[in-house]
Structure formats: C-alpha cells, structure tokens
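Might you be able to consider the sequence and fold that I enclose below?
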Amino acid sequence: METLKDTWGIHVRQTELILGYLSHEQLMIHPDRGGRTIGAILAHLVNNRLDWIEPIAPALVDDLNKIAKTQNTDLLLIQDEYQKSAYVVMRLIDLSQKSKGKIKGFDGTISTFIAYLIAHEWYHIGEIGMILRQIGQAIPKNKAYDLWDWREKYY
C-alpha cells in the first residue's frame, strides 16, 4: 500500500501546483461555450471525493465540508478543503488494508478507486488548462512542465 500512497501523494502534490498557480480572479472564469467556472471545477474535485468517501467510510469525512456554489471563488478555502480531502483519501488507503484492498460501495479495489480519482481529477485539470489557454492566460511552460515531474516522492 505504500506505493499506492506514494502515487496518491504525488498526484496531490502535482495538482496543488495548479492551485498555487491560480489567482482568485481566475476562479471566476467561464469556458468559452458555457459550463463551470474554474472555481466550480475545483470545488467539484473536492465534493466528488467526499461524495465517494462518505458512504464508504463516513467517519473519515465527519470534519469535512463540501464547497458550496457560493464559496467556489474562495481560493484559500478550496486549497484547504482540497488538502483535507486528499488526506482523507490517504486514510482510506490505510483502512483498505484491513479488507485486503476491497472497499464497500465501489466495484473494485482501492487501487482501481485511486486510479479512478486520479483520472477524474486530471481530466478536470486539463479542462482548467484549456480554459486558461482560451482566454490567453495559459499556464507558463515551465509550470506546465513541472506537472509532469512525478519522479520525486511527495514528502
């Protein structure tokens, strides 16, 4: 499970690079053809984690809050809830060891669940990158290249 925890930790570190790049103003940007703002996309990532984990291990999310639509322009709140929910996923990995990697409410193992979360979140990170590029605020190349550096452990 340590390898899985390392993978999740690296994913979190890399996506936090995006959170560190964004400004409060950018959270309010809509894509060209409608859809969610960047802030709403980030809130969705946190809320999706909680939606999955709550039925699996309700005690893990007792102290966490979903990000409401009225809060998705608060960058500090998004960053804080993102980190808290990332830690909860790490705890879920630990808990899954007791059930040999199985988790209730998900048709698969903890490994496939983590793969789902990572794929889902990177889909939306790509969406954010596309929105920023469309409005002429693309992530600088050196920052974009940093997103691909998964070699180092997260701690």
Notes: The chain has a mean pLDDT of 89. The chain has one domain: 2-146. The radius of gyration is 16 Å.
